[in-house]
């Protein structure tokens, strides 16, 4: 513990050792607690706490600079330098440094002497050597950090000698003393350094080149005092042939010392600067770095070379950069990037990215150096593939000229790859490969071109806001041209045709360019919004690319498409352009912009797959014309073909076909277009969407072909490291699953009856198996064995092919299932758009059961991540966008009857579900339909009701008043939910839950009013329904929505019914034998307390006499089970209810307490004797000294022998009248406390108002009262008024008035609602 360590300097033993007298220990107690706490906070690990404590300590000492606190602070801080906790030592060192800096009158030599005396290295024990060494080191560092050490010559010399002595303990301190000495000497003046240098630096060159600290000290002296150094050592050439191996060893030692810190040693950067200063950088880099450190095959040395490369970038010229960035260091760095891919392997690439980013950011005014560095890192390739990622964030620091030059270099390398200019390498595994096709130039060119095309796209993606529009257009045109077009003859009108290929562009590279182009198109379409300041003429980028493609198609003599267009496909292209011109006339409509985007996107896909996109383009144009030209008054005159589907249905089919393509851009365009046409959606069009989502029909649907671009994704993912990692993980999981499947199928093949019969036939034919009659065992000849082996080999080869075929078929089915599920996830976008943008559309109601079907099926089989994504998205749409939508359908028309049947069906399905999670979705769907029915207009419902009445089928009257404005059939839904509620209360494993019905009650309180009698009925039912009913009733009665549906008399009657039921339950309180019965008792008491709170808030009056008697009667049985499990909660609830009834919980009798004397006589009331005014302390002492309790008139009240001692009185009630404590917790006849009803065991509870009215003047003034009868003894009815009288209150008149106001205003009590006759009797009894 830190407290022990901080308290160590206060121990007598240590005080004696340090030379202080034992009396000092007692003198330390004079210091304040605040002052001592500073030293605890200084050692805490939080930096803010340490700094705040140090600052407070300095402020405290500034007020007492000459006191004993300063001596104690110095002693405490010096002692803290050597504590056992390593994290606390720097804290004390920093605090000591700030103390010395603030109080310059403190002599440094004295402080240093105290440190050396406290931690004398010659006398310290071996076990305490390490703390003593660190104490001396941190002491010198504290002197140095104070800023005063370099000014005090004597203290400086002593500190240097101490550091030299500490340097001998390398096992403990390593190189820390040497580093501290360097830091100190780097701050001293030139004259001081000249004086100290002979003592700290050895004149032998071998000693200088023996350690990094000595070499760094030599470099420091060479920089500050070269003349003194020359006299001491002579002329030294560190980069001579003799000294280069020594420099390599020193740098190796420096690399090993920073292995854990992962930073560049200062000595390496100093040598680099010295080489640049002496114009010997090429020799240093070639011989020391590349041929020295890099050849050691020592990874810390390699990392030092990488860090030296990154740190040297800002210091080198363009020619020196070419030397560094084309050498062995950067090639070795590329090998490290390619091989360091395991999760636990150290990866230097992020650190190198920081170095390059810092360099590019620091030389914005030198685009040539920026371009040279970026081109050099892009030229480090592994068999043609650059090791730099395609999405490299350092390009954001490029200046515009450097960015233009880099894009031009990428395009030139794509067209004419210069493999000789690359720093190419092969890993050890690649070198061992015998496949000659891996080392051909064509493969390297393909890998390089594929990386370049995605690099261009990533530049636009990361710099889309900063890039010039002309440069973005150049990249987009480049990708489009080389993805879909081929140059036949160069022309000046098309600059892309003037760029020949040194290597032919193969089909795989064109596929990569096509994939990269659509990724670029997605970036341009989504991130670059269609604004006038971003694109020329305010048109989207897709429009300009289509215009460029049309220009290329018109120059058929110079350019041709990769897939030639037929006449029909060219006509489709021209019609698309014509439709685009027609859409410009409707540019003000938002729908026209969505249609334009869809048309442009499908038009560009015509270049990729003309045969598939041609018919699709024609259908889209027809739908667009019908959508924009459709008017209501024309539809009556035009003859419509009944066989032709509406344009909305056709367009929905087109959108589904586009969603079948795994393109994120297609997905976004489909969402946008569907958002504009969903207002005109037809039931048939919605059914097309639901057919895809329906699990029963979607398994066999063939009208939508789901395509897969896994090859393209793998092609693109090969360049992106993150996607590459995901692909590797997925491929590993696929291989594992294939391995498991192969094992299962091999086991299946072992028991295959057909294969077994064939095997037996072959063995019998080869006479390997003898028959029953053959007794002679003859060995087969060599030829027979060879023939048998050949037959068996062919048989097993056929079986292996069959197993492989079954495995391939199974994998194919799984892949098709995954593609289908992915397609369904994309189709859910359309459903989300519909429920979000058209929540008032009646077609939304048709989505409930299909979505529930998906949820039910996915909850049963949501094993894979794809299934879970499908389930989560469906549940999110169903719950958040549909059931919780603020807007919903208000015009049902003739759907009301069907919706009522659907509500009944959903509630029944919710009760039949296997778990509560699935049931919750069905129950919420029914609540949504209830809200729709309740908020919809009732014209259609009234019309249906009148028709049924005319036909004589519906005898119910037509609703009038508020019910006439709603389609909700309250009687029907009441019957439905009452059945569900009864099932929930009686069924043992019901999927329905309490929160479901609470949601129903809060949303539809009128329905709750009709269902509450069922709950009240089950309060006294069997054990489980009773518990559920009590819990649900407790929650329901606290809802404000439910209370607003009841009139005051109805609410009071309901409270009385519930109270009667709870009272009946409490008759068996304390007799619980099982856990269920115990839970039932708890729920009953919780419901009772909830009733008390409700009545208190509503200021209701209820008859609690019977309840009080029941509770008092069960107290004995409750005390007998006081030690049972879970009885604590039961007792708390019981006494909470009794406290509300005015009965305080008795205190438990302590062990050894005196027994209360028993007395059988009744208390005798007498007038209190007039006394003078005494101090309050005197009154308290007198009452505490009395053995018995006092009545209100001062007469002691005797209690029974079996009764517990009376409860103590609180301080706030000491001025009130005393009341006798009753046995067994029965209420005392005293003035009621605020908020608690006053009850008597033989009378009904009374309110404070009635008691005030019934009091006589003589009673108020202290007239004697009749004695209180024992509990449980009934009194005659005629004596009732006399028993309800409250005695004299010791309060003054203003205090009594204030008490009455507090009782009435803030704490309404639970009162009896007796007959008027009883109230009249009370009034008569109160009269004199």
UniProtKB/TrEMBL annotation:
Chief location category: nucleus
Region listing for Disordered, in residue ranges: 1-24, 698-752, 1145-1328
Keyword Nucleus applies: yes
Biased segments, Basic and acidic residues type: 703-720
Bias (Low complexity): 1301-1313
Keyword terms of this UniProt record: Nucleus
Subcellular location: Nucleus
InterPro entries: ARM-type_fold, DNA_pol_V/MYBBP1A
Segments of skewed composition (Acidic residues): 733-751
Protein family according to the UniProt entry: Belongs to the MYBBP1A family.
Name recorded for this polypeptide: MYB binding protein 1a
Organism (species): Macaca mulatta
